[in-house]
Design brief:
By secondary structure, the protein is of the alpha/beta class. 41% of the residues lie in helices and 17% in strands. It has one domain: Alpha-Beta Barrel (TIM Barrel), CATH 3.20.20.70. The protein has helices at 2-9, 39-49, 62-65, 101-107, 124-144, 158-161, 170-182, 200-205, 221-233, 243-246, 251-264, 268-277, and strands at residues 17-21, 53-56, 74-78, 80-82, 95-97, 112-119, 148-154, 187-190, 211-214, 238-241. The strands form two sheets. An eight-stranded parallel beta barrel has the order 1-2-3-6-7-8-9-10, surrounded by seven helices. It has a two-stranded antiparallel sheet with strand order 4-5. It is globular. It starts with a helix and ends with a helix. The relative contact order is 0.15.
Length: 278
């Protein structure tokens, strides 16, 4: 059954996936909420844009799954909640799974579930919790035939970065991505490296597990589209973008521009022209 669900996630022609992450409200961070104040409207706009998947939480998945028709995007269900995204790390940190995560994913007709693998300087306990979460999910996801997307994230030190910032050092990304594979990931959701020209090394170390690249914080359209083109050329199997979609002035147009890049190999230049004419 995992293969059947993955077939809903990945485009049959291109073999790639564009997943729009809209699970930011799960983490109790005010800075994550701009652009997603009205979730019914956000989901409606995204469904009209037609990405392959939308990443939601158990509390918001209903906005997607009440929509009629078989052409709507697949659901990727966020299964863990953490308190590590603020400008300062709290004295007690955690990454905790929702109850019966795989069963809830099955009941919500998800095509995949998503779980974090954090590596945070000064927070080894969160890393250990993530390992426990993934090992628990692995057995249950195999039992229910539910694909497991693991999100390996290397953080920069909070004292250095002034809050949640990812570390694009490829030498730090590689071992964590490989660990996610060794733990049984069916799909990976990883950060881009600072040097995009070496990202093929991340794809290689994934050993054939489809690798989707995160979008991170808001950047200009030019940077986003050029980065996307470079990552696809390096062998990425798709993208998972959130704030660069939901905080964009025209979420519909940027989603369609990126879909053209992911599935039709449209250049960054052509995608930008389309976006400006929308």
């Amino acid at each position: 059954m995992k293969a059947a669900r993955l077939n809903r996630l990945f485009n049959a022609a291109s073999g790639r996936c564009f997943d729009v992450a809209v699970d930011h409200g799960f983490f109790n961070e005010a800075s994550f909420l701009p652009g997603i104040e009205s979730m019914p409207e956000v989901v409606r706009v995204l469904v009209n844009a037609g990405p392959d998947a939308i990443q939601l939480t158990v509390g918001q998945a209903r906005h997607l799954q009440v929509i009629h028709g078989k052409q709507k995007p697949a659901l990727v269900l966020r299964t863990d909640v953490a308190n590590v995204y603020g400008r300062e790390l709290p004295s007690t940190r955690f990454s905790t799974l929702i109850a019966d995560p795989v069963l809830q994913a099955v009941r919500l007709d998800a095509a995949c579930l998503c779980v974090n693998l954090f590596q945070i300087p000064g927070a080894p306990e969160v890393y250990a919790q993530c390992i426990d979460n993934i090992m628990l999910l692995k057995a249950e996801s195999d039992h229910y035939g539910m694909p497991m997307m693991v999100e390996p994230l290397v953080f920069r030190p909070n004292a250095q970065s002034g809050g949640y910032q990812v570390d694009g050092d490829i030498e730090k990304i590689l071992p964590l991505v490989r660990q996610a594979v060794e733990l049984g990931a069916d799909v990976l959701k990883a950060d881009p490296s600072d040097d995009l020209s070496v990202y093929h090394r991340v794809v290689e170390i994934a050993g054939g597990v489809p690798l989707l690249v995160r979008g991170g914080g808001r950047v200009s359209d030019e940077v986003l589209l050029e980065r996307t083109a470079a990552l696809l050329e390096q062998g990425a199997s798709g993208i998972v973008y959130g704030r660069n979609i939901i905080q964009h002035p025209n979420p519909l147009a940027i989603t369609r521009a990126l879909m053209a890049m992911v599935h039709e190999n449209v250049s960054a230049t052509k995608a930008l022209e389309f976006l400006h004419s929308a």
